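Quick illustration, no need to memorize.
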Amino acid sequence: MQGRTVRTEIQGQQVVLRQETAYPWDGRVNLTVELEEPVEFALRLRIPGWSSGATLTVNGERFDLNELSEHGYAKIERVWRNADHLTLFFPLPLVRMYASPEIAADIGLVALQRGPLVYCLESIDNAVPLHRLVLPRTADIRAIDESDGQAGLDGVVTGIADALAVGRTDWEGTMLYRPQPPEMQPATLKAIPYCLWGNRGVTTMRVWLHEQSI
């Protein structure tokens, strides 16, 4: 959990806003207002464009973010009192992202994103060469908390999915081409935040993955 404190002056008195969160690994952001006397002002909370299904409570009361939305921010205007508490929650599922059909290099490929973070695959985590991994469109992508993970990933949320691998065990000799397609074999796929790749030794990396539609 990380904390941040913002101080400002409103109507002649100091207002303190304290934030506690484990974002972006956890979608819960807690805010506490500290002041001497009640004072009215508008508090604007950023609701990022990637967010879907965000919720807001003030002192336990739920507010409709659609009604409060103003230019990408939730505007909460009220008389604030000492120890008022806000909780902003962003659901953080691992979702598939697709490129425009006009981007020729990404046709038939998919990327993974969780909250504001794009994910990637590193060869250090995957037994199969990355170019041979295929993510079925129906595969469930599970978020894994690496609180007790290996060095370099401790405290990070990674993604695991049942995938397929383009096999080569039945590919004889040095033949490069043949009429029959290669076999598909079960595999496990592990993804990490793109911003962390290259920190655990020599590795290859891939963001855009092959996808099997059926």
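The longest helix spans residues 65-68.
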